[in-house]
Amino acid sequence: MNNDSDKRKDDLKDGDALALGQQLCFAVYSVAHAFNRTYKPLLDKFGLTYPQYLVLLALWQKDKMTVKGIGEELGLDSGTLSPLLKRLETAGFVSRIRDKSDERQVIITLTPKGVGLKTDAFGILMEIGKATGCSMEEAAALRSALHDLNRHLDENPQDQSLVR
Amino acid sequence: MNNDSDKRKDDLKDGDALALGQQLCFAVYSVAHAFNRTYKPLLDKFGLTYPQYLVLLALWQKDKMTVKGIGEELGLDSGTLSPLLKRLETAGFVSRIRDKSDERQVIITLTPKGVGLKTDAFGILMEIGKATGCSMEEAAALRSALHDLNRHLDENPQDQSLVR
DNA sequence: CAAAATTATATTGCGTCCAATTAAATTATG
DNA sequence: CATAATTTAATTGGACGCAATATAATTTTG
Predict the structure, then answer these.
(1) Which residues of chain B are within 8 Å of residue A19 when distances are taken between CB atoms?
(2) What are the backbone angles phi and psi of residue A106, rounded to the nearest 5°?
(3) Cα–Cα nearest to A28, from B139, B14, B71
(4) What region holds the HTH marR-type domain (chains A, B) (predicted)?
(5) Per residue in A70-123, pLDDT tens?
(6) Three-class SS string for B71-112?
(7) Dihedral angle, C-alpha A44, A48, A49, A54, nearest 10 °
(8) A150:B31 CB<8 A
(9) Taking CB atoms and an 8 Å limit, are B122 and A18 in contact across chains?
(10) pTM
(11) Does any strand D atom come closer than 7 Å to the Cβ of A82?
């Protein structure tokens, strides 16, 4: 059923706030995919996926972390990491050894092959740097803005409707 | 303090360029996950996932798109969209009808239920806006920077190392 | 027109992701 | 010190995301 005010519903002053192009979340979503596409051919040479590469980045900073420790660094849980780490182990980049003093924990350690890959990572870093088209300063500024955004989103009070 | 030669082993000029915190890609990756976590409780109320919500956003802008058309809007292929759209159909948000004039194409159309959800989407938009902690201007600036980055990454010449 | 090439969608397989559950080990408590 | 509560990983199931392949419809070309 029509009336003469049909059109008004979607003429909000600023165009349509629900347009994909106006959504910050979609911009982030798209860039995340774009990074993935850019990394893929570089990481394929080593048989790595991007999340696997992130785990190696974490281990190059601090070797011998537990699964939980890696999860905290990357924001991933054991549901993601357990199978991922098994694949890294099968590929020979890390070892998984249960902590003798606390058998609940599994210590992830870089193998020599895993350590050796760090050298190649600088090449990847360079390629990605070029691909972004950002200067160091631009990249730093963008990173900073994203860190702030991340902090805000994570501080977001969880859904209160279910909290007694 | 220690002997000044101690720290030389890993001082590649600017600290460690491979640190997770210094990687723009990881900042983007983390924010994408953070957005997902923020959206989840809001979308759960409607039984939607975030990618499904993106499809609806696209259809609210332009209804009756083909699978390919939606894929171009969102940067997704049929491997992702075919099952996703079936779930949206099963949930009653869209219909999938093969184009009579070109039976290769499937036209995705919003059902009344799918159209009706647009009203609720404004509420979600508001919640997300609050959660970002960004002003309109900050969000617009960040979006713009991300669009530039996206463009650069997608323009990145494909791996030339295999091309002779 | 018939064969070949192209296009649009669907399917399969693998690797994330996350929620929920399970199992084992450790710590806290009565 | 025995049991309850907590902690850590692993597992399971559902949903992306993408590469590779398959299938059917359309267009191109010889």
Answers:
(1) 57, 61
(2) -115, 120
(3) B139
(4) 21-151
(5) 999 999 999 999 999 999 999 999 999 999 999 999 999 999 999 999 999 999
(6) HHHHCCCHHHHHHHHHHHHHCCCEEEEECCCCCCCEEEEECH
(7) -130
(8) yes
(9) yes
(10) 0.88
(11) yes
Residue B84: CB less than 7 A from any atom in strand D: yes
pLDDT at A64: 97
- Which tens digits make up the pLDDT trace of A4-50? 444 444 444 456 888 998 899 999 999 999 999 999 999 999 999 99
Three-class secondary structure assignment of A54-112 = HHHHHHHHCCCEEHHHHHHHHCCCHHHHHHHHHHHHHCCCEEEEECCCCCCCEEEEECH
Name the residue type at position A49. Answer: T
CB contact (8 A) between residue B133 and residue A149: yes
- In degrees and rounded to multiples of 5, residue B3 shows phi and psi of -50, 135
**Residue entry with tokens 């092959």:** A113
Of all residues in chain B, the one with the smallest CA distance to A25 is: B35
User: How does pLDDT run across A128-162, given as a tens digit for each residue?
Assistant: 999 999 999 999 999 999 999 999 998 865 444 33
Residue of A nearest to B58 (CA): A20
Question: Helices (DSSP H) in chain B: which residue ranges?
Answer: 24-44, 50-61, 67-74, 78-90, 112-132, 136-155
B96 bridge partner residues: B108
DSSP letter at B10 equals: G
Cα-atom radius of gyration of chain A, to the nearest Å? 22
Chain B nearest-CA residue for A134: B149
Query: Which tokens hold the place of B115?
Result: 């159209």
The per-residue pLDDT for range B102-159, each reduced to its tens digit, is 999 999 999 999 999 999 999 999 999 999 999 999 999 999 999 999 999 988 655 4
Enumerate domains of chain B plus CATH numbers.
24-130 (1.10.10.10)
Q: Is B26 on the interface with A (CB under 8 A)?
A: yes
User: And the tokens for A6?
Assistant: 């049909």
Residue B49, SS3 per DSSP: coil
